[in-house]
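User: Can you predict the 3D structure of Transmembrane protein 82? Sequence below.
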Amino acid sequence: MLSPLSLPSWLPSLPSLEWGSSLLDALLQGLIGACGVSVLSNLLKVYFFVGCANDPKRQLEKERLRAQWALLETVHLAGLALILTIVGARVAALVVLEFSLRAVSMLLSLDKGSRGPEKLQLYLLCQYSLGCGLTCGLSFLQEGAPHRTLNLLLGLGLASLLSAGARRLRRHVCQLYELHSSQHYCGVCLGLLAGARSLPRLLGRALAVTFMVGNLAAVALINRDFLTTSEAVRFWTPLTICYTLLVIYMQEEQRQHPGLQGQVQTVLVRLGGLFVLLLTVGRWLDLLGILISLLGELWCLVGVRTLLDLCQIQDFPPQRPSVSAPSRPSAPAQPQGTAPS
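Assistant: Sure. Here are the predicted structure tokens for Transmembrane protein 82:
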């Protein structure tokens, strides 16, 4: 009996059909990666908005976070999905490995007291790398699956639900958090009032798991193209040296220029060094992917200037106001009884 799932086996094995199926799978992976970045971005905006709302000195930043246009957010999501679709698996794998090495080096070099702002900045700057990690992981895990397109469609449905939920949460918080938290009305807003400080820790754990899977998939995808061990050594040796030098340079550069301009310079230097390296050990499609990755990094930096400025504040977020219970009317004082005569 013919079923929709077995329909591709009845079709002739034409190269155009295989190319179209691969393009559809790449598009679905790009959309899933963009949805994952959207979830991270919206949750970070919720965290920063709650911190600004609890601090009277941050009213200007709060209004900037509140002024988000839905159309621009949709355009940003669609553009990121398109970039992740055409960037290529090899270049996405290189981006994931470079960011993971840079993140581990940064976390190991941080003092214990300054990890909060540095980690928040790291979460802001990992958005494009997160999208590449998701696409790499999906490409590796779904490779050779009998119903790969169907699996990616189901994954896209789940990612879309999570992205829509995070977007609705951000809109709700930006519009009603101050009213609900002051009136003790909404459970979501009261939960953020009491436990918003734990949100970066939860995001950090989710990102750690995602990048662990992405790194394993990236190494497997890159090694897949090497026939012998000597070819792999000729590729990995200069790549490791280049990554190490870039990490050392980037740490010093970020200390001197912590703002948005410094981050743009960092992106140009990192991808420029990787471009020069791939001129000798890469492919021409990899060079095109590096240029597309440069556009993707800059695309993800759009709109995070306010958040980067907040990361430079050492005492952000301020201590939350205590959630006091509603006062109860005091019982009338009992008249003192007269002593017996």
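The radius of gyration is 25 Å. Residues 15-53 form the longest helix (39 residues).
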